[in-house]
Amino acid sequence: MSAPNQLAQFPSLKGKRVFVTGGGTGIGAAVVSALAEQGALVAFVDIATEASEALCQRIAASGHPAPLFRQVDLRDIPTLQSTIADLASQLGDFDVLVNNAANDERHKLEDVTQEYWDNRIAINQRPSFFAVQSVVPGMKKKGGGSIINFSSISWHTSGGGYPVYTTAKASVLGLTRGLARDLGPHNIRVNTVTPGWVMTERQIALWLDEKGKEDIKRNQCLQGELLPWHLARMVLFLAADDSVMCTAQEFIVDAGWA
Ligand SMILES: NC(=O)c1ccc[n+]([C@@H]2O[C@H](COP(=O)([O-])OP(=O)(O)OC[C@H]3O[C@@H](n4cnc5c(N)ncnc54)[C@H](O)[C@@H]3O)[C@@H](O)[C@H]2O)c1
Fold first, then answer.
1. Under a CB-based contact definition with an 8 Å cutoff, are residues 59 and 35 in contact?
2. Separation CA 135–CA 139 (nearest Å)
């Protein structure tokens, strides 16, 4: 199901410079598309080159500003930071950062080595901090900004099967709330968006089975599928000036599961 036609426009997003991690597929792609539809100038990084380039072409073909895409593995912090600097010099300093990318690979407590732990943290936690570090000087120069960090209901609901992922996703709230205090005086807002179980290509291909469908039915207050565009709408609100006095908060979009 795609987004219905009669949804809100956010005039303050027109011309805003936005940087998104993991914008090539899943929720990130919906966020990139929704922002471009509002007239924002979007740059994003991903490892999925083919899907990311196809997304840029689809957006350009629909008449919206084509996003800038760079292939970056977020585990490589120096490259992430130099790419953000390069994109900012091309587009202008960023007004909005969306820390979206993650990887929810399953693992068992007894199998986690120190190397595996480091690798999970390197994708699910570390890049968000360093992306913030990169965009904040530009936001300070501009007199403000909005940072949106993605968490997950998995740890709220005591979800098992991926303890390093839930550790990283719970820590997103610490990142949000700690930085909101430091950055508030600069008019930079920091918030968390927490998805429920969203029916992305990856979730459907890897994890959704009959039991999963029953879990969704039983646990969601609202029936029906939670889709990437539902999350993108919350990101639009938090990126726009409509949410000008919202900071340090968690916004849960989960159809009432958690
Ligand atoms: N889909 C869900 O049900 C769900 C539930 C809770 C939370 N979330 C959160 O929402 C966010 C988006 O999730 P999603 O389901 O769209 O994920 P996804 O796996 O569908 O997409 C993530 C994107 O990040 C990219 N990516 C992964 N590793 C990367 C790396 N090392 N470097 C650069 N790019 C990389 C992928 O290529 C992909 O395009 C994540 O933070 C996730 O934790 C999702």
1. no
2. 6
Torsion of CA 44, 199, 59, 36, to 10 degrees: -60
Q: Within 6 Å (CB) of ligand 1, which residues are found?
A: 22, 24-28, 45-48, 72-75, 100-104, 123, 150, 152, 169, 195, 197-198, 200, 202-203
**Dist. CA 185 → ligand 1 center (Å):** 31
What end-to-end distance do the CA atoms of the chain give, in Å?
23
pTM of the model: 0.98
Please tell me whether residue 226 adopts helix, strand or coil conformation. Answer: strand
Q: Which of 10, 44, 155, 165 is catalytic?
A: 165
Output the residue whose Cα is nearest ligand 1's atom 34. 46
Residue 17 phi/psi, 5-degree rounding, is: -90, 125
Please check the confidence at residue 1 and state whether its pLDDT lies above 70: no
In this predicted model, what pLDDT tens digit does every residue of 173-231 receive, in sequence order? 999 999 999 999 999 999 999 999 999 999 999 999 999 999 999 999 999 999 999 99
